[in-house]
User: Fold this.
Amino acid sequence: MYRDALLVTAANVLGYSEPVARATASTDRYRAASQQAATSEAAVRSELLAVRKRPEGLSPHSMATCPAIVALLGDGDPLLAFTRLETRILARLELDDDVTPLNAVAYSLGLASKGRTHLERLNEFGADYGYEARQARRHSDLGIQQLVSLICSNWIVDAVPVCDVVLVGNPGGGSTEVMVTTKRPRFVDMRSVQIQWYCPDDEIDMKVQDLVPPPRFEPVAPPSSVGRCEDLPGELHVHQRLAEPLMLSPPDSGRTRGLRIAWPGEVWPCFQWQMIGPLLPNATISSQIIGNSIIVMYLPN
Assistant:
């Protein structure tokens, strides 16, 4: 049991708390998590199924009715999202060997067919590749799922959640202020940011310690977006920041101390950090990014 406790603690320190937590969570907690609001995959799947029924299929115009895809691929621009999606589908069709489902969904969405109904486009796919109607429909449904996975994972690079960490030095020396702001697409399911003390010189079960009281985040009004499509409902991004800055003090008695900032969720976030203002003479700020967390440490002289 003691070894298991050490393993869980070490995994938490290294930023792999999510898989360990999922493996050891109770059934009730797992069911509660599965009943949360629809994730980006559910939203994208719903939009693709709806748009393939439209007479024109997927087009720059109909893309405006797909806010989740527009947020993930176009950062609010339907034309950009459509162009990126079309280009990446064609590139995947050219590179891969087993692309029948993706080819079928290209027909279904009207990217490889001029049919005016979904049924016409499926029949055209079946005629071109020798499939009967039910087989063509199965390939199209499988292609939808593959496309959902690609949009929400491999192709989401331009819309990953961003966590900004800003350290403000004190001209007179001493503690450094730490501010944290986050930005995520509304359709990407991310949990609350977790901030803890990180003390690498302490015993393994004391390396990570909770802040008391726990840090509180507050919503931030998003910047006005010029040229944003009016057909898209609500804001595409959720902005938050620490209500009050944290204070990171220099090491005591040569012991290293820092902050561990983790942001678990549907995808790994992008961490950005910068230092503003002077540090103590010969002092060093170090950072380490592992998975869904960043560790910022004030190193001893």
User: Anything to note?
Assistant: The chain has a mean pLDDT of 80. The chain is about 35% helix and 20% strand.
